[in-house]
Amino acid sequence: MPCLAHTLQLTLKDAFKHPSTGNVISRARSLVNTVCKSSVATEKMISKCGKTLIKDCVTRWNSTLNMVKRLLETKIVLNQVLDELGIDTLLTSDWSKLEQLVKLFEPFAVHTDQLQTDSQSLSEVVPCLLNLEAHLQSSVISKPLDQIMLKSLRERFAYLLNPQAADFDATPAAACLMDPTVAFALFTTEMESLMKAARSCDLQHAAHYSSPLVSQQQKSSVNPQCPTSASAEGTVLKRFKFLASKVGAELTPTSGNTTGNAGSTHTELSTYISKLKQGKVCCETETPLKFWQNREIVYPRLAPVAEDFLAAPASQAFVERIFSVCGQLSSGRRNRMDTSLEQRVFLKMNQKLLLSISTNN
């Protein structure tokens, strides 16, 4: 499976290749380069607003979006500086186009940041993709560009979203179903085939596990029917607002009467899904992993499968970044280092945390 965060960025690059987008981005980049090369312009920017423009880099994710956002953020001050120095600014139509592009690309940047962290579970992949798809379908910003990005998104991620694809992999969808906080993404008529593939994948993996024997002492501390609080549900829907808006009425809890003492994996899975549709998912204080740990007696066959899926990271981006740091620290220019490589990598990866601790102290 390719890196999901990297593939998501390729969808953005497809959008940048569109003439209407590429031309305005090129003009914005040219203006940024002109200002950054001028020490006078840079000093004036810092003195007036305390900020400088950001140059983008083709190998750095979201850098083009950050460049455009900084341009818009400093637009008034920038135009004042350009006027003082006799440098031409962008056209009014260009500024308007950049504002539209930020609205269109912002959700992609948000989900890229989510998927490239080490704390994001594989279960978040399908909801992120469906949320972006819903965003593009509902967008009225630039219809031709919306359709280009939607087509690119569906083609590049067909192996995760389309069960009819030759290289389809149901693992992320199965992980999504096992996450009670985001499983609603599969509870739509449109996702019926993906839901079926996810169920099949979960059942296949469950067949490799034997039913664990859990002591009655653990059962006394389990509350298998802890309903979701409004604030917890609201937090989830806020993260996937475009998808939640699209799903709409299908998120309404349904009635049902099932028991958790299942005699088979099929019954356990049906019971779990039924409770999700009734709104009986994890409490506000429960993480998805904690949800399954607290219900190992109720779902003895499903719990090991869910814990395996939820423990998998959403992408390889964070691991690749660690290898990159190791390569930089052990390259030829630093080949006389002692055995402190592991400590140096640790300090590098936790630099922000260490700085915040020292600041608080």
Automatic annotation (TrEMBL):
**GO terms assigned for molecular function:** protein dimerization activity
**Pfam families, alphabetized:** Dimer_Tnp_hAT
Give the species. Answer: Acipenser oxyrinchus oxyrinchus
Occurrences of domain HAT C-terminal dimerisation (ranges): 281-341
List the gene name: ZBED1
This protein's superkingdom?
A: Eukaryota
Q: What is this protein called?
A: Zinc finger BED domain-containing protein 4-like isoform X1
Q: Transmembrane segments in this chain: where? A: none
